[in-house]
């Protein structure tokens, strides 16, 4: 179901595709050097989680359309595996999946080192970071690294939903930011 928008929400076109078909991203483009936008998402127990909740840590925010797809599964497992090598780093995986489905998926996949969060309720993260796909009401695959002071240090908007992010670049950025 497409997302209804108001005139105040920026729309970005010609930057993202789903199987080659152009999609519209809602929200402003986040850029390196800016203050990371605040957001509210849901944990598995339906409690609210914000960016401020992990203040003082470097954050790697891994954004996936749905955990129940191959690339999203691989992306989340990869960052879960890398988490042990990243001291003082909080890894957040955010999708539009319902919190209950996320909890089920994490249990089945053995994912326990990243915090998997849902933006389903009000798309707060998607709109703040410019990754809400208007036509699909999913989040565009992307990676953000936010340092302990809240400054964005790395941004990758993956241009095709069905493509992997640059894991090596994201991991290098988070290691640099965590120094």
Produce the secondary structure layout.
Layout: E1 11-18, E2 21-26, E3 40-42, E4 48-50, E5 58-63, H1 70-82, E6 89-95, H2 99-109, E7 115-118, H3 124-129, E8 132-133, E9 138-139, E10 142-146, E11 152-157, H4 167-177
Parallel strand pairs: 5-6, 6-7
Antiparallel strand pairs: 1-2, 2-8, 3-4, 5-10, 8-9, 10-11
Structure, briefly:
By secondary structure, the chain is of the alpha+beta class. Helix content is 23%, strand content 29%. The strands form 3 sheets. A 5-stranded mixed beta sheet has the order 7-6-5-10-11. It has a 4-stranded antiparallel beta sheet with strand order 1-2-8-9. A two-stranded antiparallel ribbon has the order 3-4.
Radius of gyration, in angstroms, nearest whole number: 15 Å
* Spatial shape: globular
Q: What is the structural class?
A: alpha+beta
Overall number of strands? 11
What does this structure look like?
By secondary structure, the chain is of the alpha+beta class. It is 23% helix and 29% strand. The chain has a single domain, classed as Glutaredoxin (3-Layer(aba) Sandwich), CATH 3.40.30.10. It has four helices and eleven strands. A five-stranded mixed sheet has the order 7-6-5-10-11. It is globular, with a radius of gyration of 15 Å.
Question: Any descriptors?
Answer:
179 residues; alpha+beta; Glutaredoxin; 5-stranded mixed beta sheet; 4-stranded antiparallel beta sheet; 4 helices; 11 strands; 29% strand; globular
